[in-house]
Write a structure and sequence with these properties.
Helix content is about 65%, strand content about 5%. It is mostly helical.
Length: about 450
């Protein structure tokens, strides 16, 4: 696991373990073991070879310090890894050593190991996505009727509900989950091609051996090796960047609602979190900040993967290597963003009374659209808009409630009664299809599970 002091912001302990050196080496051993099982089945390795490698699956025979040192000379860790593996096998059965890494190349073991790590990583992300979705569904149901000001360009607009705002996040997250499931099918595939993707070292048994390795490792057997076709890995990182973007949008909205001047919703508050080193009164949106910080780094990782796609001929030079940290880092950072989002969604505190106070403080001005539409039925859209613009400007200038000014305008009172005006200015009566949209999203969320 990484030991940087700021690593708490950019990974979770569980995801760091998935992409630790130890986990990578064990995944590499899984590939090498599965290869020997397949070779035995094809008659290309002595009986008992796979059993020797099976006894080494924990990869505890590896000298990591020596591996790192020799990797600098070899260009990757696979070459010294196979050398140490061959020595460990020879010490147990010298004939079994002949089949170690037979027909494979360095990229085969490294790429397949990465795929195996990705499978575990996706399981972790899936569990946290489930937690966020459950929390959002609960909050949406709880606040389907909690009215607050809608905001456009950071200015007050017509009313909406907190439930609808959160439903937007849930709908986007469901789309992200669909993208992840789709990308998962394409990325969890075996890499096994040999030197240039022909498996020539295995002759006619190459297809059979590859299919058996895929079966053992529970991976898809691709129609062709993909040494320099990196679209699947690139897609996976783009999808993760989209997911963190969705989470960041949610985090930014909550952080804005937490502003002192707004104060409508908050991260969970306790004495241990969100404080300031100098200002005792502060309740900082620390989880929101973490999610936003993570997403700010994701476009660079996504761009790296896109830049690395045009790899040379049958085996890449440099661009493949650029993926080695980019893919694990994308998963580490996504895991952190999701973990912080779980905290926000599960611990969300809402202040409906402050929402109402902010609506009241707007002097009814954001409801001008509702009155304009009603008046348009009487005097036409253009004229109604002109009247409401004049009335709204007067109310703002005189700091009077829109209701008071409207009722004093003959152009309005001639067509709308005081009761009608009061109803039109009630935010609860101008929510449009909010409830229908919420029900659609909740129904889709239930179906997605």
């Amino acid at each position: 696991m990484r030991s940087e002091l700021n690593s708490f912001l950019f990974s979770t302990p569980a995801m760091s373990r998935v992409f630790s050196a130890e986990s990578q080496l064990r995944a590499m051993m899984q590939f090498e073991w599965a290869l020997t099982v397949a070779l035995e089945k094809a008659g290309l390795a002595d009986s008992g070879t796979a059993s020797v490698l099976e006894s080494l699956l924990e990869a505890d025979f590896i000298d990591i310090e020596l591996l790192s040192s020799e990797a600098k000379q070899s260009g990757n860790i696979a070459i010294p890894f196979v050398r140490q593996l061959a020595n460990a096998v020879m010490a147990r059965n010298d004939r079994a050593e002949r089949a170690v890494h037979l027909g494979a190349t360095s990229q085969d073991v490294l790429d397949t190991a990465l795929v195996l790590q990705i499978r575990k990583a996706l399981e972790l992300l899936g569990a946290d996505l489930e937690r966020v979705e459950r929390a959002l569904v609960r909050q949406i149901k709880l606040h389907a009727d909690t009215v607050l000001s809608g905001r456009t360009w950071l200015q007050a607009g017509p009313p909406t509900t907190l439930g609808l705002k959160l439903a937007g996040t849930l709908a986007a997250m469901r789309r992200d989950r669909v993208r992840i499931r789709s990308a998962r099918k394409r990325v969890l595939v075996l890499q096994f091609g040999g030197a240039v993707g022909t498996r020539a070292a295995l002759g006619e048994a190459g297809v059979q051996v590859g299919a058996e390795i895929a079966r053992i490792l529970k991976l898809e057997d691709p129609e062709i090796p993909w040494h320099t076709q990196r679209d699947n890995l690139a897609e996976m990182v783009q999808v993760l960047a989209l997911l963190t973007g969705t989470l960041a949008k949610f985090a930014k909205d909550i952080a804005l609602l937490m502003q002192s001047e707004v104060g409508e919703a908050f991260e969970l508050a306790d004495l241990e979190r969100g404080g300031s080193s100098t200002m005792p009164h502060k309740h900082n949106p620390i989880a929101c900040a973490a999610v936003l910080a993570v997403h700010a780094t994701m476009p660079a990782l996504a761009a790296t993967m896109l830049t690395a796609m045009p790899q040379e001929h049958e085996r890449g030079l440099g661009l493949w290597q650029a993926e080695w940290e980019s893919v694990p880092e994308a998963f580490r950072r996504t895991s952190a963003a999701l973990a912080y989002t779980v905290e926000i969604a599960e611990g969300l505190e809402v202040a409906p009374e402050r929402m109402q106070a902010n609506l009241d403080a707007s002097l009814g001005l954001p409801m001008a659209e509702a009155v304009s539409l009603a008046l348009a039925q009487k005097i036409g859209r253009s004229e109604a808009h002109k009247v409401l613009k004049k009335v709204a400007d007067g109310a703002r200038r005189e700091k009077k409630h829109l209701s008071e000014v409207l009722k004093q305008q003959p152009e309005v009172s001639a067509h709308l009664s005081s009761t009608e005006i009061d109803r039109l200015l009630d935010p609860r009566h101008y929510l449009g299809c909010a409830h229908q949209f919420i029900e659609r999203v909740l129904g889709g969320a239930d179906a997605s599970h």
